[in-house]
Design goal:
By secondary structure, the protein is mostly helical. The chain has one domain: Cytochrome c-like domain (Cytochrome Bc1 Complex, Chain D, domain 2, Orthogonal Bundle), CATH 1.10.760. The chain has helices at residues 2-17, 21-40, 42-45, 67-76, 101-114, 124-132; strands spanning 82-84, 87-89. It has a two-stranded antiparallel sheet with strand order 1-2. The termini are far apart.
Length: 137
């Protein structure tokens, strides 16, 4: 009886401590995305995603509403004024042409987990599809 209880307790602890493969992959993408965000994005959008006054927009729901567009912005930059939440931002967003599709997927997963409240990863396939449809520069 004591052994059965201990085995049952062990299995419960093991079950609760194990994460599914998708949860682990999500955590990896978020961790890598955080590092990449700090390197490529935080200088303008700030570490907290609040942006810089009227220079660079906050990473709000309005800014993030079109994931494919955000992917294009990350890769190709933004070279014309943009309006977010009624504010006009005239600063150009630099392109990041050297970022690999996986790195963009990781940044997107971090950004959307942090400011978009998503729990799924942005896949490399999603990034590839968006990049194929990006408007020409």
């Amino acid at each position: 009886m004591k052994i059965t209880f201990l085995l049952g307790a062990f299995l419960v602890v093991l079950f609760l401590s194990c994460q599914g493969e998708s949860a682990i992959k999500h955590e990896q993408y978020v961790a890598e995305g955080f590092t990449l965000f700090q390197t490529h994005c935080a200088n303008c959008h700030q570490r907290d995603g609040k942006g810089l006054e009227n220079l660079y927009p906050a990473l709000s729901t309005d800014y993030l509403k079109d994931k494919a567009q955000v992917i294009c912005w990350i890769k190709n930059g933004v070279h014309q004024p943009m309006t977010v939440n009624g504010k006009i931002y005239n600063r150009a967003m630099p392109a990041n042409p050297d970022l690999k599709e996986l790195e963009i997927a990781e940044i997107m997963t971090y950004v959307y987990a942090t400011w978009g409240k998503e729990t799924e990863i942005t896949t490399v396939k999603t990034v590839q599809t968006a990049l194929e449809k990006c408007p020409s520069k």
